[in-house]
Write a structure and sequence with these properties.
Chain lengths: 166, 204
């Protein structure tokens, strides 16, 4: 064991908290190393010197002042059990506000379709509700993209869907 | 039968204020001493000790015995003491900037006298315990906390390491450096024959 290794274990050795292996290592080094042995001895004396510092007692009114401060603490309110954490309450309020905002009607203008547009949408409802038809993309490609052309859409009939005629 | 700190704190949590009084009686002196040795001002030390107890009381409902009670309490005390020292340092800096310059005062550093100074000369100015207190106060903050908790509170390494938020290995190095500094600073006393202990702490 080198001097620098001993320095790390010396305090634990002196206050008797080192384990037996560490104690043995330190003791072996101290027998062989005069400077470390002197330092260990001076640490022991130093601890006795540090013990000379007198104890400072708290002042006479310490407890009374503390009790006064505790008595002045705000009492828990009746709804405190409902809101154990202010941050949690804030997060919940934020979540509710966000839900309301997300759930609001997006665009009323888009929903107010004209009578013609609504009629065309209903006209194609059979196609849109037919799963077999929708699952075949090549057939789906034949569905008119723009319902604003009634002449073309009337001519197109789904090939395998008897109920698809609108 | 004496109830443990954790049991007392759990009783406080359950609404038993008398258990809090028992904790107060058990720890007011160690806390005031620790804080006084940290901040070197009796009034500030008492104020900080009251603040520690107040925070313990406020946190009673959320208390869970995940660590030793003393680790928790002294961690609060350490943080408060370090904040107070830093605040005080800022105030002193502001004062020194605003105050008219006094070369004589400024030239006297707030530090211990040199080792060459004869011990009897020094003892004329300050008594022995004041000399020791000054040596402890001159340690860097973290080393000071480590020495106070190790020497005077007799805490184990794991507990001190948790309070200082460092590893046990780092703590051992920290303690060695701190005691080495004190050995040098207090060499005049260490060289003298050991006197009968007048204070508290571990007899080594």
């Amino acid at each position: 064991m080198k001097c620098e290794d001993v320095s790390k274990e010396l305090i634990a050795y002196l206050d008797r908290r080192a384990n037996s292996a560490e104690r043995r290592d330190v003791e072996e080094h101290l027998v062989a190393c005069e400077p470390c042995r002197t330092r260990a001895e001076e640490f022991r004396k130093l601890w006795s010197v540090l013990d000379e510092v007198p104890v400072t007692e708290p002042s006479f009114g310490f407890d009374a002042r503390l009790r006064q401060r505790i008595a002045a603490e705000p009492k828990p309110r009746w709804f405190a059990w409902l809101v154990p954490q202010p941050r949690l309450a804030f997060a919940m309020a934020l979540l509710v506000a966000l839900s309301v905002w997300m759930g609001r009607p997006r665009d009323k203008a888009a929903q107010n379709l004209s009578a013609d547009e609504q009629f065309q949408m209903i006209e194609h409802l059979g196609v849109l509700e037919n799963y077999d038809l929708l699952s075949k993309s090549d057939v789906l490609a034949e569905v008119p993209a723009a319902p604003a052309q009634p002449d073309q859409s009337d001519d197109q009939t789904p090939p395998d869907n008897g109920g698809g005629t609108l | 039968m004496t109830r443990s700190d954790v049991q007392l704190m759990l009783d406080v949590k359950a609404g038993d204020d008398e258990s809090f009084n028992l904790l107060l009686r058990r720890y007011r002196t160690p806390l005031v001493n620790f804080l006084y040795r940290m901040v070197r001002d009796t009034a500030t030390a008492e104020d900080l000790a009251q603040e520690v107890f107040l925070r313990v009381y406020r946190a009673r409902k959320e208390y869970s015995p995940s660590a030793k009670f003393t680790t928790w309490m002294f961690r609060i005390a350490t943080n408060l003491a370090l904040n107070s020292i830093r605040d005080n340092r800022h105030k002193q800096m502001e004062t020194s900037i605003d105050a008219p310059r006094n070369d004589e005062e400024d030239s006297a550093p707030r530090e211990l006298p040199s080792r060459e100074m004869r011990i009897d000369e020094h003892m004329v100015e300050r008594d022995r315990s004041q000399f020791i207190r000054s040596a402890i106060t001159s340690l860097p903050e973290k080393q000071r906390v480590a020495v106070l908790l190790h020497k005077y509170e007799e805490m184990d390494y794991g507990e001190i390491a948790r309070i200082l938020d460092c590893s046990e290995s780092a703590l051992k190095s920290l303690l060695f450096r701190a005691y080495e500094t004190l050995r040098v600073q207090l060499a005049p006393l260490v060289a003298q024959p050991v006197r009968t202990s007048a204070g508290e702490g571990r007899q080594s």
